[in-house]
Amino acid sequence: MDTFAALADPVRRDLVVRLARGSARVVDLTAEHAISRPAISRHLRVLAEAGLVTAEDRGRERHYRLERSALAVLTDWLAALEPRAPFDESAFDGLDLEVRRTTRERRAGEARTPHHPAAGTTPREDTA
């Protein structure tokens, strides 16, 4: 069974959410839903076929638990939908390096110049 098909039903999604909090018996899961115990068992069987839940027998009781690794298909699919930058993120590293180099060279050039006019002033002509 496909993970997406298994989670298409709202009851099965609720069961997955409940089992994310911890393992539970069928009777516990039935108490939280307004459907019969056999119906809950059928939903759990579908989830088990998709690999989303596993059952463990403890004495006479069967406990179901969520298999979180099966949700990787969903997270991978959602990650593929995330918008991506139109350029490689490492381009920022190169740009940062270039800005730092240019700033350092400019400061070194200003330190070597014995006198430089203040910014915003223009040289005056001698009219006398």
Strand proportion: 5-15%
- Describe the biggest sheet? 3 strands, antiparallel
Low-confidence stretches: none
- The radius of gyration over CA amounts to 33 Å
Which class do the helix and strand fractions yield?
mainly alpha
Overall, the morphology is: rod-shaped
Strand element count: 3
Summarize the structure.
With 128 residues, the protein is mainly alpha-helical. The protein has six helices and three strands. Helix 2 (10-20) crosses helix 4.
Fold topology:
Blueprint: H1 3-6, H2 10-20, E1 24-25, H3 26-31, H4 37-49, E2 53-58, E3 61-66, H5 72-81, H6 90-112
Antiparallel strand pairs: 1-3, 2-3
Helix pairs in contact: 2-4
Provide structural commentary.
With 128 residues, this protein is mainly alpha-helical. The chain has helices at residues 3-6, 10-20, 26-31, 37-49, 72-81, 90-112, and strands spanning 24-25, 53-58, 61-66. It has a three-stranded antiparallel beta sheet with strand order 1-3-2. α2 (10-20) crosses α4. The model has no long low-confidence stretch (mean pLDDT 88).
